[in-house]
Amino acid sequence: MNGDFLHLKFSICITPKLHGGWNVGKLISFIVCSICLIFSNVALSAPKNSRSLNKKSSGICESFLAANSGLVENSGSQIDEVNLSADNSRSSASVEPLKISDVRIGLGDLYDLSSQNPIVQFPTLVMTAAQKYLQLVNIAKPYKTKDPVFGVADVEIYPAFTGQLDIPGTGMIVGQYHAIEALVSHIASAARGEKGGKIFGAIGPSGTGKTEMFNVLDGIRRQLSKSNPQFYEFSFKWKGLHDIPALRGLTPKMGGEVAFAEINPDIKRSPFTLLREDMQQDIIEAVRPEVEKNLGFKLEVWFEASPKDAAIIEQIMMYEDKQISSGEKSISDLSPEEYLNILEKYVHIVPKLRGKNGASEIIRALGPNPNFEKLFVEQNPLRMMLYPGDSPLSWDYTGKVVQQDGGALIFDEAPRNEKEVLDSLLEVAQNSIAEAAGPPVHLDIVSMYTGNDESIISARENGDLNAFMDRSHTVPMRLNIHPWEIAKTALLMVGPNKFLMRKLGTGKPEKLEPLDLNKAFPLPEANGFLKGIYRRYALYYSYRSDEAPILISPHSIEMLSLTAAITRLNVDPKEFAKFPGEFEKITPQQQYFVNPVARLKMILGQDNVSLAVRTEIAKLSNLTREGESGISARDMQSWIKEALDMAIKQGYGVLTPEILDVAFSKLLNAGTIKVPSNALRTAWLQRYALVKNHFTLPGLYRDLQEMIAGHGQRAERIYDAITGEIIALSADANANSWQPDNSAPAQPINSKRLEAIKVKYKELHSREFTYNFLLRHMATSNRESRNPELLAAVEAYLTDTELEIADTAKELIAYHSGSNTNPEIQKAAILIEGRLANYGYDKASFAAALSYWTTLHSVPKKTPETR
Fold it and tell me: What are the DSSP calls for 460-529, one per residue?
């Protein structure tokens, strides 16, 4: 036992040094540690608390250990400073972090009542599952922003869920900030040891991240359990049990030999649970201050051994001590040293590595006649004769639910289960007891369930499920409705590692780099504003290492995500008519309630909408379960993959809005994109046309106008001109000229153009444009701020009236097809080609944009539908 402890200290001190060669500094470190070991070994033979080290004599070695610990520290809101990889968890002396494979712990080492106890360095030895998840949640501090959809409520952004941590191989949840906050609150409650609270339920359609929330945390846990000592986890194996006659049924012989020299416990708990209760309490009292200082929150401890492990310990003690076997004394009569000396013969502490399958178990709806034994515990027919009755030794604790001990359990579509299944679920979730089959077992587990709105409504109407619903805390997780979060989700589901990106707007050719979703589609700013990828990065699909990547043309991802968003919006007046008297702003701001284009522009920040209106629409969105229907996340994944396959097979070399258009029609006609009814299919197609007319067409025009004309200031110049005209007309209704600010000569008022822009404004925003509207904006905004609604009207006016752009586009299309050899057009084309890369285009995508814009431009414009 003492030798094991010496092995621990020796391994920790010198093993990391074996990888980097020896030098003078390392030699000195080795000598210092050797001195520490001599004093430590003397301390081990002390008569009182023989497992405790002399703290003074081991101080140098303790400092040496601390330098190797690589403990994670919270970094406040500076998320960029957080780096949790093992390679970067080094001390100033560039000491390699302690590897979990180098750690040697004996069971007796856990009874060290000094600061040298391994629990101080490896706190997961005693933490509950909920505490481990809370530690992961708090790995970087959350920070507040406004809700990015409506900009009304504050939300907490938790970097552990959003892919902001520099930990490879972990996932992310896009959006769903309110649901994540609720889950964190649920975890924190369980981590405080609270029992009997309501079970957490995430409600919404598939593809919203309901079953992924714990898996994201599990991914971080899996990586850190291999690279960072504060997250290292340990379990144990039983050894030598075949020497004990009463336990030979657990280790049968095969061919005359014991089948397994060491056997795993059914439930892989910490070796700490094998210690006697009084010993556990002594240890926790000794280490709690130091552990809580490192963790930053109050420690909750899991003490209980599994039923089978407790039964094995009892048989070991009876075999080793005849007085216990005869009943002359009990196990509690043993001294701690006697208890440890016996048990250490049969226990081997091992790392508990969480492999690829270390994700939380998802229990699907079981249907009628569920097999509870496969979920909980199952009696082993080979051992029933050896261990009769309810002996834990005759049961296998290997069901799906029980095997999640120490982790999280997700019951998917729980309300669809039979009442008896839900009763068992409630017992597991609320009281951590599994007792549907066999003897009850207390579990160290965090659990939740998922469902959709229809199943929850049905459950509430079902009298048999009232108890389940009354004890549920349901949180909505519906489809994202912000277009940039939809785009981010679609790329995430296809696989970010399949995409590349290139930075735009630097004025120089930038290299391709792996797609970083949080750079391409950043998380919300403090005011909730979200940026898209347009004009910031070019996006590429890399489908084969030996082939050039496919460029995803600008506006392609936009069109895809805007289409999904517009089908998820609820703009049916009948829906909010169900809540009479609750909304005061419907009449004066009706377009934002019933016009899907206006709603999208509000969400994108393209229309300035008052806080009062946004607050009411946020309320309406929640009441009408906005995001419960529309093009699903799975269908979005199918759509983009189909379009990419078309681009590859047909040799385009580029994915364009036109290819997305063809792919959408194909999947819709084939039923791959599922539409609940023919009426809804018609509505979706109408809204798809609105996206193309009100977003894709103006966007393509802006690109073409800038690349063809060589600048992008035309709309802004016209905006500034009509601003001067309106100021002049407000002062004198009969004015016929206006004065620019730069002392240039007075300019004539273009009344015809001004009236045409007013018409476009009404088409876009479903209300009359008044001079007072612009004057109020100018009074409350800085001088450089242009009203986005009026600017959109100016751009729409240019789209309809800039015939020279349309004519040039047709000539360029002819040039690219080889039928136009006009030297002037050739010269213009060469000049344009030099500008393409800075806008995210190449020659093929530019030619496709010319063609598609010309096609859309010739289609009669449609007024936004209101239902």
Answer: HH-GGGHHHHHTEEEEE-PPP-SHHHHHHHHHHHH-GGGEEEEE-SSSSPPPPEE--HHHHSPPP-TT--
Distance between CA 405 and CA 485 in Å, rounded?
Answer: 34
d(CA 130, CA 188) in angstroms, rounded, equals 7
Q: What is the mean pLDDT of residues 401-414?
A: 87
CB under 8 Å to 769, separation ≥6 — which residues?
757, 758, 761, 762, 790, 793
Strand partners, 748: 737
Using an 8 Å Cβ cutoff, are 104 and 348 in contact?
no
**Alpha helices, DSSP H, located in 276-415:** 277-295, 307-320, 322-326, 336-343, 372-375
Q: Is 738 helix (H, G, I), strand (E, B) or coil?
A: strand
Cβ–Cβ under 8 Å, residues 534 and 554: yes
Q: Note the pLDDT tens digit of each residue in 238-264.
A: 999 988 999 988 876 666 666 667 889
Asked whether the predicted pLDDT for residue 578 surpasses 70, the reply is: yes
Query: Which of 401, 400, 402, 436 has its CA nearest to residue 418?
Result: 436
Residue pair 139/82 in contact (Cβ under 8 Å)? The answer is yes
Which one, of 850, 759, 849, 768, lies nearest residue 801 by Cα?
Answer: 759
Find residue 589's DSSP bridge partners.
none
Where does 653-770 have alpha helices with state H?
Answer: 657-670, 678-691, 697-709, 714-731, 751-765
The pLDDT tens digits of the residues spanning 692-737 come to 988 988 888 888 877 776 555 667 788 888 888 998 998 888 888 9
Render pLDDT for 93-134 as a digit per residue (tens, 0 to 9). 345 667 888 889 999 999 999 888 999 999 999 999 999 999
Compute how many other C-beta atoms are within 10 angstroms of the C-beta atom of residue 259: 11
- Confidence check: pLDDT of 740 > 50: yes
Instruction: Tell how many helices (H) and how many strands (E) occur in the chain.
Output: 33, 23
